[in-house]
Specification:
Elements: E1 2-7, E2 9-14, E3 28-35, H1 59-69, H2 75-78, E4 82-86, E5 88-92, E6 97-102, E7 109-112, H3 114-129, E8 138-145, H4 150-159, H5 165-171, H6 176-183, E9 196-197, E10 210-211, H7 212-220, H8 238-241, H9 243-252, H10 261-275, H11 279-299, H12 333-341, E11 347-349, E12 355-357, H13 361-382, H14 387-391, H15 394-413
Length: 414
């Protein structure tokens, strides 16, 4: 848990209009101005919730820099500001100080305005090296408390449009073949289909909702039309980094952009039918690794609970995605995607197109959990223990894939 204290001007608390008495747990919003010289340096360590990397060599970044350095007292008017997700905001009227608390790096941190934040911190450091400070400029902070899934908000704010593709596809029954599989499947006795959000806001107010795009991102990793095992360089990193991109790839199913909708549907439905024998296993594998990953770290004498992203000391942490089981530690998506995705090396295809496993995936996890954990924890250390950097590391994706591939080949030859 980290708390930042900043001098705040024109502090305003906006209660959700649908929940003015704060009874249903809907998010609250806070807005205020912060002097650019008071922006906390440590915010740069809470960027995992922002889907974009910040490139300060772009025209946009240069324009932000130029506006910041002008002593015109207008930066707060022209700049979009910095959007944060937090667990708590407390304002002291007497001191004028706002206390912003972050707990979970997968939920709390910078959601939008990453370029603005990085420009301010970079330019402030340069001025400090010259024995100076930035001009007296202000930047607007918008802090939302109570966000449980920041991805949609980040994607919408970063693109300035709402994300509605899944809702439109639900109307077209594009998820029908998947629903047939989910409806007859439970994980640890949990009927997870009842928590899947197939259209926007469908699960508003429900705990541990599952975005259909997340499930599609998971399944895409094993889809031999999109990520054939014959191409070892084609790591499915997009499954981790972009839900909307995953959905579009699933809908198009590898066909050219000019393919008509009916053709895409036929191809998509056929691939889902071919994958049907392994789809329940994929989701069970995700759940098993989420619930048992720390057994792998224990086997190599690594203290997983010492990592900030483990949320070991947090008052609460998300339950397992599919089984909804309580977890002792949080396992970030940045770890789960490359680990689970590596098991695509076990996928084989019958002559009739149907998928099967070279060996049972959960047994393969039990055989290799220590080795997998060693690769992950070493990568975590090298990448500053950033779940986002871990999830985007092609070296880690490839190393894990090769580990599973060699194990499968050795088992098949035995």
């Amino acid at each position: 848990m980290t708390t930042f204290t900043v001098p705040a001007k024109e502090f305003k608390h906006f209660r959700d209009p649908y929940d003015p008495q704060k009874g249903s747990g809907r998010p609250d919003k806070y807005r205020f101005y912060v002097n650019v010289n008071d922006v906390p340096e440590e915010l740069k360590d809470w960027m995992d919730t922002n889907p974009r990397d910040q490139n300060l060599d772009t025209n946009v970044a240069r324009a932000i820099r130029d506006s910041l350095l002008e002593d015109n007292k207008s930066f707060h008017l022209w700049n979009r500001g910095i959007l944060l997700s937090a667990s708590r905001v407390v304002y002291d009227n007497r001191s004028g100080l706002a206390r912003i608390t972050f707990e979970d790096p997968e939920i709390h941190g910078d959601i939008d305005g990453g370029h603005t934040l990085k420009v301010i911190l970079t330019q402030r450091e340069k001025q400090r090296d010259r024995g100076k400070t930035l001009p007296e400029q202000y930047v607007e902070f918008e802090v939302i408390v109570g966000v449980t899934s920041p991805e949609d908000l980040a994607e919408a704010r970063n693109n300035s449009v709402a994300v509605n593709t899944k809702s439109l596809e639900e109307l077209k029954d594009s998820f029908g073949p998947l629903k047939e599989i989910f409806n007859s499947h439970t994980i640890q006795g949990n009927h997870y289909v009842e928590r899947i959000e197939f259209r926007q806001n469908q699960m508003r107010g429900k705990s541990n909702a599952i975005d259909i795009r997340e499930i599609i991102g998971i399944l895409n990793m094993f889809n031999q039309e999109l990520y054939p095992n014959s191409d070892m360089e084609l790591a499915p990193i997009q499954s981790f980094s972009g839900r909307e991109v995953c959905l579009r790839r699933f809908l198009q199913m590898g066909l050219d952009d000019d393919a008509d909708e009916a053709e895409c549907r036929r191809k998509r439905d056929q691939v889902v039918a071919d994958m049907r024998p392994i789809i329940p296993d994929i989701l069970e594998l995700w759940d098993y690794i989420e619930c048992h990953f720390t057994e792998g770290t224990s086997a190599i004498a690594k203290r997983y609970g010492a990592k900030a992203y483990s949320n070991y000391d947090a008052k609460s942490r998300p339950n397992a995605l599919f089984s909804d089981a309580e977890l002792r530690y949080s396992i970030p998506r940045g770890i789960l995607y490359p680990v689970v995705g590596s098991f695509r090396a076990l996928v084989r295809v019958h002559p009739d197109g149907s998928y099967y496993w070279a060996l049972p995936p959960i047994q393969a996890w039990k055989d290799l959990s220590g080795k997998i954990a060693e690769l992950v924890m070493s990568s975590s250390q090298e990448l500053g223990n950033s779940p986002t950097a871990i999830g985007k590391s092609k070296n880690l994706w490839n190393s894990l894939f090769l580990t599973l591939s060699f194990h499968a080949q050795k088992t098949e030859r035995a």
